[in-house]
Amino acid sequence: MDTSMNQRSFIEKLFHLQENGTTVIREVLAGLTTFVSMAYILFVNPQVLGDAGMNKGAVFTATALSAILGSVLMALLANYPIAIAPGLGDNAFFTYSVVLAMGIPWQTAMAGVFISSILFLILSLVKLREIVIDAIPHDLKLAMAAGIGIFIAFVGFQGGGLITGSKSTLVAMGSFTVPTTWLTIFGLIVTGGLMAKKVPGSIFIGMVLTTILGLVTKLIPLPTHIVSTIPSMKPTFGVGVMHLGDIITKPQLWAVVLIFLLVAFFDTAGTLIGLASQAGFMKDNKMPRIGGALMADSISMLGGSVMGTTPTAAYVESSAGIAIGGRTGLTSLVVGVLFALAMFFSPLLTVVTSNVTAPVLIIVGILMAQSMKEIDWSKFEIAMPAFLTIVGMPLTYNISYGIAFGFLAYPLTMMAAGRRKEINPIMYILFFVFIILLYTINILPK
Question: Do the record's keywords include Membrane (predicted)?
Fold first, then answer.
């Protein structure tokens, strides 16, 4: 009895449950809900980074460990019910823009992630992160989120067989005579229906049902076993650190470092503010303890880069746990514990094929694209850079080019509209930075 009371007292002192109007049971249920909503990343991240040539088993373990690190730190440093794990936009940029499109080995690209992680941590320590975030126009932040969403969805359509390459029209409709394409269609319909009905964990449930259909129809081979020892991270651990020298000989990698830095900047900051608003944490338009939250994200991003995964981010799926009452770090601590338990189920990676993950990419793309509605399309000086940012990503198959288009167009259109005084000086600096970066990667003439 005394032990139970002491445990409750310790939890109360650590997370201030009464002060936040919540209970242990409610926080545990919120953590379970959040975990189920975001557990798909355990299988999607290895699939995406596997396309870059990385070992899927090692990425699975790195994904879980970075999610554990970030979520536990969020609980202890900021006491927020917000979970952290590798972000979908970052891994898509890493694989499809950097490794496949630019032809950079994944080992070298991971070195770029490691450097951006160090810079990210330094900027968080000296509190420059908020200054740079504030300098970027709100409309461009929204355009970046929407553009990444459409790019991710495009990757999903392609990976799921719904669209294919074409010499005459660049892209064309995929073949519906291919049985596995119907797995993607099934997953999209089922997951979309669950999302529309607001079922908690819709994305994860959709993945499970699609996988079951694939197994029943024998379109997906049965796994040899379900539970196993945790996969070794040896194929990916420390690889980025060992290839730091590659960046010196490849100037285009600095463009990669900058884009990873920018995407990480906006991804977590925007998500944190949105979730804090949902939970009622915002005070005087400011988020209390945001320093601790940003530090949790920064440290997990650095740790993930060493282990062998792309940058982490606060997960918008945390809203599911918040919706059922999660209000403290105990929620995110429970998420971390569940990720630890999930590490023993790596054999399931073999049944989570690209047709199973494709609907996930499309659904997440839809969610991210919703930010377009808040862009001020009535003013052309805003609409043009925002539009170029959004369409530039999928049309060039490169997230960095889309961001460059927007950042280069914004100062020009704003000056043409007579709104020079509204341009933050940092935007001029970024304008020239992107010109230099495009020059170094042979986009601009020399």
Answer: yes
